Structure formats: structure tokens, C-alpha cells
Amino acid sequence: MKKNPIFHLSLLSLSVIAAMANAAESTTAEAEEIVVTGYKGSLQSATNAKRESTALVESVFAEDIGKFADSNIAEAINRMPGVQINRDPFGEGVNVSVRGLGTSFTKVLLNGSQIAVATSGTIDTQNQNREVDLNLFPTELFTRFDIQKTPTASMLEGGISGIVNIRAARPFDYKEDGFRANISAQDVYTELQSTNSPKISASGSWRNDEFGVLLGVSHVDKKLATEGYETIGYSNLNTSHRICGTTPGANQTLATTGGCNPSGSNNWLLAGLDQNASSPNFGNGKVPVNAGAGLVDGTIIDQAFLLAKNPGLNVTQISEALMPRLGRQAYMSGTDGRTTGLASLEWRPNDQTKFYLDVMSTNVKKDVDRLAMTMVGRNGSMIPLNMKVDDNNVVQSGTFANVQFFQEARPYKESAQFYNINPGAHFEFGEAHTLDVQANRSRSDWFREAPTVMVATQLNKGIYVDYTNGEVPTFDVKDANGKVDFNNPELGWGWSGGRLNISNEKRHTETDGAHADYRFGDDQNNIKFGLAYDKASRKIAGYDNSGRWEDVVCRDGLDANGNTPTSGRKACNGLNPNSRVPLSQLSSYLAKGPGFITVQFDKFKADTNYYNLRDSAPEGGGSSTGASTALMEEKTQGAYLEFNTTAEVVGHEMHFNLGGRYIDTDQTISGPVTIAAQPATATTPAIAEQRFYVSKPVNYNYLLPSFNATFKATDDVVLRFAASRTMTRPNPSAMLPGTNFSDPSAQNASYGNPELSPYLSTNIDFGGEWYTGDEGYVGATFFGKQMTGFTVSNTFNVPFSKLVVGIGSDQTIPFNSIGESRQAAINARGGPDLAPILVTQQVNAPGNLEIEGAELTWVQPLDMVLHGFGFNANYTHIYQRGEGAGAPAKAIGVSPESYNFTAYWEDFGASIRLTYVWNDKQVSSGPNQNGVLGAELMTDARGQLDLSTSYEFDNVMGKPKVSFSVSNITNEPLRMTFAYDNATYSSFKTGYIATLGVNASF
Q: Where are the beta strands (DSSP E) in 102-250?
């Protein structure tokens, strides 16, 4: 078996560390304690924390309260080894992932307690799992962030890859009595839009020997802007058997999908497909009227036509040619206002007793206009001419006739609230007994209002496109008069091919907890015992009134009861007598925009009864983010026993941590099901549509052991070993209990599975550090994880009469609710009691995901070269493989290699830091995207260069510090691809962001 190169590297590194130990044995001397401040001081604190911890912990410390240089917590921990962050289209860090696993495998704590936020992540994500959006928390109100990579028994469970604990400021963080205040003001300049955004923060703290109070607030009103390109995937031409020259199979005809498209997808339709079996052109297409690009109306599109119009390609290449499904220019701009407040009280009546109370609240208002001008590939019928493809059949250039474009205007209005309160106390009884107790309570709400107005160019207008592929593909759009101006409201926009949506989403999360930790012994040698109770809940609900709004705007209005007509519903074309926005007046609701038209939403909403329809939108199964309507409730009881001791082994000091944590979780996942209206029969009355929630309570419990040890090879060399078992709870969105029975042939159904097991991982870590003096050290860590908990599809048959509406419900799907055609299909197979239904359900698989990795770190002051100069560098390599049935080939969303390098200089009150963070190319989805066999979404490798500078006027009252920073200096894009490097899936540029600020302390 071939050995992984990581472990060759690990043996070499341990040999190097051993050599360092021997060299350092005779040169170690006690150093005089020097108080270091600024960035060097924060590095010194992080180095000390790592050195003193038995478990493997990475830490970031503030230079002082209110003096973190980064804009949010995700950005602050981005430079730690093994850490990656995902960014929104505006370039801001949002969620964090650790050591080769996605964001849902990292647990985030606030002041040591679990929290949940209701927000959905970036603007295009769903975050239906337990992710915490770290951009909600401004760094100015925090003093320390820790990532614990190897667990201890006393640590809360839930993070296979690690635990991130963010620690808010407290009054006794100041070492001296008296009043302290910190004020910061910044101006944030966004290059892309040339806008300025204010950011202010202030905190005040007072303490004496017994009591302290700290109050802080941070506010930012950030201007948002990004522009780019996106595709929503790729597709290819759905060529028929007639054109392919292949023989139809069972239940196929010459007009159905042929055999010259083995990779699948087929979302791009053949123009004018003749489906009349008696026609001589059955299975061929026909050029529509005024298709453009010089094509003659009525010309038959057969194999000969396609070969002649695309010289050099065969029919399979033409059929397999990959084009964007919805290739579109995209532009987003808006504002993001966030206000966060912190109150912290501490009372220390004596040296043995401490009480504290922390309260934090955040309020967010986000308003974003999103515009996209889209070339319709999916379900469109463009005609390919002169296509050139590469070896992967990605189209490099071509002309496409009979093209339609739609313009989609989607303004987002979001509001979010979060508050957390956690009281606690510390008691010491004599010299050997301590008790810590803490409670926590958090609540969070989120609402997104996301209407969509989409209008389209009309077919048969001679519009065609000269397409050229590239890092960002280009579309040269023309008609018989020359270049088409998409920023012209009078171009001839229409409703046919467009749509309207009222699609809103509400979320609510809650957490409550209480923890007690008892310790017998001193700091080095002790036994710890603890109890924990944690409760979490989350509700996601989508509200949709799209159908009614469409009836009002472009169809023929609502019925007498204010509902969509049940019969005789007119087309959405703006040609109906009761259309509120008739085709003849559509242009009056449009306006010039940033390169293409936009919608005058205030006028549009006022004239179309939007607000009443928005407020009366019923709850549905989906939402504006694509998340499923669902309710999750969890209650967990935990207990742990932990031993810590120090011993001398072969003449060297060793620290041991050994323990186990037992958890017992009661979990209920609920989801809605809908039973269609049932018509009256000779023996039964009519029954209206029914909608209700089904749920299935489950219980699971686990023992999670952990072991950590450090060996002090010399005074400056520490070797480490750790072994543990960790757990991450399954994604609630994968556990919805409802049944999907939408197959028109009434042969297939799918069940949810609320009984999916958690992910479990067996972990091993080893490595060490050589501490070279001051903040400096060289470290190497090697780790392995073996994970279970992935899923595969299981199939089984049940008779229709036993098909339940959802797991956890005894109610079966009524035969009268499924429609006449499906009733006939079931009766033809023996009736409801005999007709078999093939049910598919996700179940836990026996396979494992193996992750092996290495982290190398070097923090080095270089005062011998230039006083105050130094660097901080780290490198992470991750290797993954799946073993056994159901295991993924790799975990998605993580780069196999990443590194960052910071060069810093501090002296004479000045500070300069230049940081480069690089993440390798990564897989960002599962396979078979858009129905293309094996196609995965990939995120490009990306490096970001940031600069941070400051100067402190030490002799001026308040010691004001003027700072200037620039992020993304080189304007690196955020780019994803579809299966191949030259098939751009999305690409967004944010420009650089420069911040000028001043900070003063009193």
C-alpha cells in the first residue's frame, strides 16, 4: 500500500524537533519578564496560551480592548493554521471551517456556551444546519478567540473539526482599578462603488477591588457592492433520436432524447421540435420566424443542418457541447447596518468568590438590490452556429440564434436580531475545591423579504449572440439593427418568459443551557466532574404568494374569494383586461440601471397590491433561500469526568489530561405535509386540502473519551499527543419526515429519515513546538480523523395503502387525493392494497471518510535584523479519501492546501503588517450537478493580500492611534467553475476596501 506523503513529512519533522531539543538543552536560560503590547503582545499571549495548554489550542488575543485590527471574528481567526473561511459575494468572511471539514462541523461558543443565530449565511446560502455567522460579532467588543482542535471531556460536544470559543470583554480584563474608555471611529472606502461607510465603537469600563462594569457598543453602516457573472450551472442540447441517428428504446420515439448525449443534462431544447409522428420531419426541428443570424424561417433542423452550421464537429460533440444554463451578468449593491451592544458586570466580594453577568445584543438591517441580465439556456431553444469546443466539450466560441434574455430584479430586505445572556459564578472552597456554574440563554430572529420581477425579451425579434468563453465569458448581443441595448426600457420587454415572486422567509432560534463544573485539586493535578443541560430549537418557515401576485400583475386577476382561479386561468402576458401592469404600460415601470434596466419597485408595488399580498402570504414548503420549512428541537443532558495530572517521566515533565463525556440527546424534527383536496364520491363528502406537521422524536447517547498529553523534552521544546472521539449532530434539513409522492406514474416515492445518526470521528493528533524566545516558536502537528455518519439511498416496496404521509405519522395518503391518472395507474397494478410503491430513503452507510493532515507554524521575531521586525507563517496540508459504501470521496468546501504569511514591524509607536492568505482550489459540491455525469462545482484557488498600519501618539492624551488598512489589495475575484477550469460557474469582484480610523483610550 502506498504511504501518504504526510507521514513521511511527519517523521522528518519530529526528527527535526528532536534535534532542536538537543541543541536547545544547553542554551536555555531564564529570561527577564518584559511587558509587550501591540501586535507583538497579542502574539506573545497566543504563544504563551499554546505553550501552557495540554490540549491543542490556537488563540488570537486583542492588542487591547477595542483594538482588534480585523472587521469581524471570521476575519480575525482566518490566519490560524488549519482554518479557512467562506466569504459572501461582497468579500466579507462569514463562516469558519477547520481541518478539512465544512462549516457545519465546527461548533461556535460564546463565553463557553452554545449559541444559535437565525441568519442564513451569505446571500446565496441556506445555512440549514448549525452554522454561526461570525460577521454578526464585531471584534471591538471581544478580547480573545480560541480554537480548540483536540477536545477535553469538560468541553461541550458537537464539533468534530474543532470548537471556536469567542470571549467577550469584561471589566476585570483591565488589570488596574479605575475608569477606562475606548473610542474608535473608522471610514470604510469601497473601491467598486467609490462609497464611504462609517463605523464607530465605544466602550467604557469601571472597576475597583470588588466590582466592575463594562458597557460597549459598535455600529457600522456598510455600503455593499459587487459585480460579476454567474450561470446556475451548465447544460447541453437535447438532440432527438432522429438527429442522433440512434434507435429509440422502449417508451421512446424519434422525437425523444437520443443516444448521442451520454453525459446527460439535456436542458437546452431543440428549436421547433416536430413531435407529430405522422410528419415526415418527426424528430427534427425547424428554424422559427425571425430567429436572427441570417437563418431562413422554416428551415429544417436535422443532423445535416447542425453539422453544416458547426463545421469540424460531429453530432456527439454538438450534443455534448456545454453552455451556461443561465449565463448572466450580475450586479448587487446596498447597505448593511449592524449595531451590537455589550454589558458585562463582575462582582468579586473576596478572592474565593466571583460573579459575572454578560449580555450581548445585535441588530442587523440589510437592504440589497440584485440585478441580473440572463441569456436563457435552460429550457430555451437557441440554435448553435459555428461552435468551437475544447477536449471537454466546453464551448469556447459560437453564434447562437433564436435567443431570449430575461432581466431579473430581486431586492432583498433583511432584518436580524440576536441577544445572549449568560450569568455565572466561580467559588473556591479551601485550597482544593472549586465550583463553576453558568447559565445561558440566546434568542435570534431573521426575516428576508425577496420579491422578484422578471421581464424578458420576446422571441422572433431576430436577437442572436456572439459568445466567447473566458475567465468571464462575454455575450455580444445583436439584432438586424446592430448591438442590442439592454439598458433601454423601450426595447420591447414583455411578460412571456418572465415571472413574479413573493417569496419570504422567517427564522427563529433559541438556546438555553446550564452547566456546573466541580474541581478537586490544584491547577496541575485535579479531578473534574461536571453536569450540563442544553436546549436548542430552530424554526424555518417560507411564505409564498407568487401565484396570486402573478394573477394580479400580468394574468386576469383573482377570483371573487381573492384566490387564484381554479379554472380558466389566463396566461401571464399582460394582454388580459384585469392585468394591473399590461404589456402596453410595462416600460413605464422600468428604468435605466447599472448597465441594464431595473424596475421602479416603489411604483410597481404600489400599483399591484404587493403589500397586502406580502403580508397575507401563506406558509409553504420552501423559502426564498431554498431552505425547507421545518422545526427542530433538541434537548441534551451531559456529564463528564476528567483527570489532569503532572508527572516526571524519564526525567522530563509531562502533563496528562484524560476523561470522558457522556451525552444523551432527545431530538424532534418536524416538517409540513400537504394532502390535496379530495372530491366528493357517492359515499364520501368532499374534503378540503389539508396541511399539518408530522414529526418523529428520536433519542441517542454516546460516550466521548479524550486523552491529551504533553512531554517537555527541554525547557523550550514541547511534544504533544492526543486521541479522542468526537461527534457532530446530523443536518436537520436531511431529516425532514415528510413523504414525497409526486411521481406521475404513481410508482415511486421517497421518505425522509428523522432517525439519521450523528457523525462520529475517531481522532489522533501528535506533534510539538520549539519555543525560540519572546513570541517565537516553530511547530508541527499531524492529525488523522476517521469519520462515519454519511448516508446512502435504501429502497423498499410498500403497497400504496400503507404509504404514510410522513415518518412518525400513522396517517396514510388518501387514494382520492392523488388525481384520476395516478388512481388509474394504481388500479391497473392491482389497486391500493396491492400496487407496490418503490420507496427511496436515505440511511446511514457503513463507509468512512479518512482525513489526514499536517499543520506547520513558524512565528519568528527578527529583532537581530531590525528591532520590532518579525513574521508569522503557517501551512496546512489535508489529504482525504473515502472507504466503504456511502462514504464521500472527499469532504466538500475545504482546500487541500492553504498557507498564510504575515510580516510585521512595530517600533516607535508605529506598526506595519502585510498579510497574504492563500487557499488552494477546492471541491464545493457533490457530483452530477445539473444532471451532467460526474460534474462537480469547484472554487478557484485564491490568495488575498492585506495591509494594516497604525501610529500611536504616545504623548497625547488618550494615546490616539491612527490606523490605515487595505484588504484585497490586488482585487482578487471570488470564482467558481463547473467541472472544468474554463467553465466559469460564477465570478465576482469586490475591489479593494480601505479603512482609515482613529482609536483613543482614556
A: 106-110, 113-114, 142-148, 162-168, 178-190, 195-207, 211-230, 234-235
DSSP string for residues in 13-32 = HHHHHHHHHHHHHTT--PPP
pTM for the full predicted model? 0.90
Q: Is the pLDDT of residue 794 over 90?
A: no
Q: What is the pLDDT of residues 517-553, one digit of tens each?
A: 999 999 999 999 999 999 999 999 999 999 999 999 9
Dist. CA 133–CA 434, nearest whole Å: 34
> Which three-class secondary structure state does DSSP give residue 358?
strand
pLDDT of 342 higher than 70: yes
Q: Are 462 and 481 in contact (CB under 8 A)?
A: no
Is the dihedral angle over the CA atoms 520, 526, 527, 530 positive or is it negative? positive
Sequence-ordered alpha helix ranges (H) in 577-627: 601-607, 610-615
Specify the residue for cell string 499527543. 721
Residue found by looking up cell 467562506 in the block: 86
Helix (H, G, I), strand (E, B) or coil at 172: helix
Helix (H) or strand (E) segment spanning residue 891: none
| Grid cell in block for residue 842 | 436515505
Section 918-937 average pLDDT: 89
Confidence of residue 479 (pLDDT cuts 50, 70, 90): very high
User: How does DSSP assign 926-971, residue by residue?
Assistant: -SSGGGBTT--EEEPPEEEEEEEEEEE-TTSTT--EEEEEEESTT-
Are 434 and 518 within 8 A, CB to CB? Answer: yes
Which residue is associated with the grid cell 479531578?
527
β-partners of residue 281 are none
Element (H, E) at 888: none
Identify the helix (H) or strand (E) that includes residue 550. Answer: helix 546-553
DSSP 372-400: EEEEE-TT---EEEEEEE-TT-BEEEEEE
Q: Is 585 helix (H, G, I), strand (E, B) or coil?
A: helix
C-alpha distances in Å from residue 226, one per residue of 190, 524, 665, 987: 10, 53, 43, 10
Cα first-last separation, the chain: 64
C-beta separation of 477 from 555 below 8 A: no
Answer whether 934's CB lies under 8 Å from 979's CB: yes
pLDDT in tens, 859-916: 999 999 999 999 999 999 999 888 887 777 677 888 999 999 999 999 999 999 999 9
